[in-house]
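chain below, 260 aa
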Amino acid sequence: MAELKADRVSVIYESARGALTALQDVSVSVKSGEIVVALGASGCGKSTLLSLLAGFQQPTSGTVTLDGANVDGPHASRGVVFQDDALMPWLNVIDNVSFGLRMQGASRAQREQRAAQVLDLVKLGGFERHRIGEISGGMRQRVGLARALAADPAFLLMDEPLGALDALTRERMQSLLLDVWKQTSKGIFLITHSIEEAVLLSTELLILSPRPGRVVARHRLDFARRYAQGESLRSIRSDPAFTAIHLELLDQLMRETEGA
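prediction:
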């Protein structure tokens, strides 16, 4: 079982106005088949933590490892999905999805075969030749997810991937993400501002304090696994236990924010 781990990481940014601590002594472990969600107010260091796990930056102190080996830069073992889909509008759907494989030297036949597989996985089969400007925002986000999956990473790192979508599209994307997780058993680290989304998607939920970001609570939840076992999202959301943890987390976040 693969494990992506941040161990007691801190990040301090130096500027002309002095030092700013973004993260302080944060530990996170993401294993295959788990969805770890980080929830907290804006500025609490969620995106910084994701950047560390992706290898986009190094911690000021502490370590980030993948199966015990230091993470010292980006790698195909960790696919990243951004809030802004960051697609290339001059390329069609399949060429966007297969772009990373092209950079790795895969042949066109290999690239297109793999891209077609992941486009089917995200329910975009038949849209391979469409231009990016011809598809909806939700479909573009699915293209971004397919691109991250194309290299078959062990982990998906998702930075507020559904935040820009309307409510109905966001709900459909939540269901799609859980379907992809169920079918691939990849480890997922996701950050969000939505309490409801965090409760629904996580197998482990981390609450981060306002700056400096610290993990102030951890919750093991089973709603994502219940969906994977066949329970409907409507049934899960109507469960009193779902409402109860939602309200508990809202109260906790309000207290953290008021105390900042």
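Residues 240-258 form the longest helix (19 residues). The chain has ten helices and ten strands.
thats it, cya
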